[in-house]
Amino acid sequence: MKKFLLSFAFLAFSAVGVNAQESAEYLRWRGITNNSFGSNWELTLGGGVNAVAWNKWGNHQKSTGDVGWQVELGATKWFNPIVGARLQFIWGQLNVSDDNGLKSNWIFPHADAVLNLSNWIGGYREDRVYYAKLFAGAGVSIVNVNSDASSGMAAVGGMINTFRVSDALDINLELKAMLSAGRDMPRGIAELAGKTGQVYSATVGLTYRFNKRDWGRSYNQDDVDGYLASILALEAALVETQRNEGKLVEQLAAQESIAEQAVKENTTLREEIKQEQTVHTVVGATALFFNINSARLSDRAKASLELVMKTIKEAPADRTFTIVGHADAKTGSPAYNQTLSEERAKAVYDYLVSHGIESSRLTWKGVGSTDSIFPVYFTNRVVIIK
Q1: How many Cβ atoms are within 10 Å of 63's Cβ, its own excluded?
Q2: Which of 22, 49, 251, 344 has the maximum number of C-beta atoms within 10 A of its C-beta?
Q3: CB within 8 Å of 179: residues ≥ 6 apart
Q4: What are phi and psi of 244, to 5 degrees?
Q5: Which 8-state DSSP code applies to residue 281?
């Protein structure tokens, strides 16, 4: 008998395992993604009362007699929020309703298919407090285990009312009926040939759920394809960004090289301009203006000559400067203007020499009448230092 029970239990869990393998992680049931085989397990311990009947499902019998008792231990595996499988072991006492008041010990291991009616009809909800579950299965009913035992296959079915206490704990009220051939029931029933034995029970149990207890939402193929396409697009954009970043780094390096070269060239150019200005440019503030028919230096002209003297002193020692006098062509005769332009140039020369400028670095001359220095004729009454 023990070998038979062990074999039956092994076959039941093998069937559960095969079903679980078929329910792979990515299979879907009404928008729910199934978990791995190690998740969504339940262990239930409970107990309650039972009653034995026969004769047309309990009709036309004598009084029901004493109520029996039973203890249950079950393990349930849910493959998705709706379908599960259970292996349950029942041990208890059956009290036969006859004149002898016969009492028999009873063992009933069985395997069931379980249907979560609430999730099937109302859809899966993690916050649901009450679940109605239907189950049906078969097992081996053994009575009078110690002496004069009788056993046989029996069918079982019923309803489990589950009340959620917490994420891990449930309280269950289970109502079920077992049917077997009358000959496999206690002696008082077995003697009634052709009758169908029945055991009706009501039990209360506590259930603990192991590992992952909830269920994840699944996505249809269009959603998955859309997500994959988005990921591929992002990856392509990332690759393109990295490629452009490399190009930008190269361009930046090239620009930095160009900028460095430009700085060098600019520095060189500044030095050349500085040297060129020192050697070839006209001295700053060199336009010295005079009044009409006058060769006398005005206060403004003398102030300008102070700057000229500073520039001359800072210039290289071999640098010479030419003082050129002019007169406007609108007044005076050419001969008069020639003399006037020379006097103006000589006045500037004398002032510079008298203030410490070496005469060897200066030359002077007058060029007479001119109208080509400035567009306004009277501004041509000037001395230019070059």
Answers
A1: 7
A2: 344
A3: 154, 155, 156, 196, 197, 198
A4: -65, -35
A5: S
pLDDT at 57 (0 to 100): 53
Q: 206 pairs with which residues across the strands? A: 45, 171
- Count the helices and strands in the chain (H runs, E runs): 7, 15
pLDDT tens readout for residues 153-164: 999 999 999 999
String of b and e for 248-263 (b: at least 16 CB within 10 Å)? eeeeeeeeeeeeeeee
Instruction: Tokens for 120, please give them.
Output: 């099937």
Please tell me whether the overall predicted TM-score, pTM, comes out greater than 0.90 for this model. Answer: no
Q: What's the angle, vertex CA 138, arms to CA 132 and CA 139, rounded to 5? A: 125
Q: Are 233 and 220 in contact (CB under 8 A)?
A: no
For residue 286, the model assigns a pLDDT of 74
Look at the alpha carbons of 121, 35, 162, 91 in this order and tell me if their dihedral is positive or negative: positive
Whole-number Å distance between alpha carbons of 345 and 295: 8
Ordered strands of the 382-385 beta sheet: 287-289, 382-385, 321-328, 362-370
How far, in Å, CA of 71 to CA of 339, rounded?
A: 144
Specify the 3-state DSSP secondary structure of 174. Answer: strand
Q: Give the whole-angstrom CA distance, residue 72 versus residue 19.
A: 24
Total Cβ atoms within 10 A of residue 305: 22
Structural tokens at position 258: 């160009």
The DSSP code for 147 is: S
Task: In whole angstroms, give the CA distance from residue 244 to residue 306.
Answer: 61
Task: Please state, in angstroms and rounded to a whole number, the distance separating the CA atoms of residues 185 and 108.
Answer: 12
Paired strand residues for 70: 48, 92
